[in-house]
Specification:
About 2% of the residues have low confidence. The chain is α/β, with parallel strands linked by helices. The strands form three sheets. The protein has a three-stranded mixed β-sheet with strand order 4-1-5. The chain has a two-stranded antiparallel sheet with strand order 2-3. Strands 6-7 form a two-stranded parallel ribbon. α4 runs parallel beside α7. It folds into two domains: 103 residues, no CATH class; 105 residues, no CATH class. The protein is 31% helix and 19% strand. It is globular, with a radius of gyration of 19 Å.
Length: 223
Amino acid sequence: MAQILINSRMCAEGQRPICQDTGIVTVFAEVGMDARIEGTMSPDDMINEGVRRAYRNVDNVLRASILADPDGARKNTGDNTPAVIHYKIVPGNTIDVHVAAKGGGSEAKSKFAMLNPSDSVVDWVLERGAANGRRLVPAGVCSASALAARRKKPCCWPKKRCSILSIFKSCERGPSNRAETLRLELYDKVNALGIGAQGLGGLTTVLDAKVKDFPQLTRRTKP
């Protein structure tokens, strides 16, 4: 309980909620086509060196959770490397890097399903939330991705990328498209489950809901 209270105070002072179990460092690097990287290290090595220095810093309050040989010795790497890195080539000569410190629980309880076109995404998310909500130590963030089967690989990339976007603008001005309508519906209905912070009941089960989709294939019927 004391640790929970300390974490609550740190969230209030930093003006952002965060769990100490930010076990997976996810990096999104947008690399300009005209950018030139000088040095002897590869981009992956550079990013992992940054993660290594950050988690070994004496002022770091986040614990290292990444294990090497996950199906064998399961030894902690001690510096939270390697990071999960995604690259996107864009016009320009700059490199833009976004970092999301994801909790390990959110990865462990994520689900992939093949829904029929007539199935409700909201109903499926609510079913999964009711089953696993307390196991994720809420309040958290609900992220849903709609993809063309698994043709967009890695299939969870849109979910990870959209998890760093904010819902507050959508709440203030209202939905401007179908995806935002779905996003606000998920936000309201998941919170209505009453799971609450730490799974102890309450009005706030998720702090945000994210929706990201990718073009689907049309099913053509024979005349």
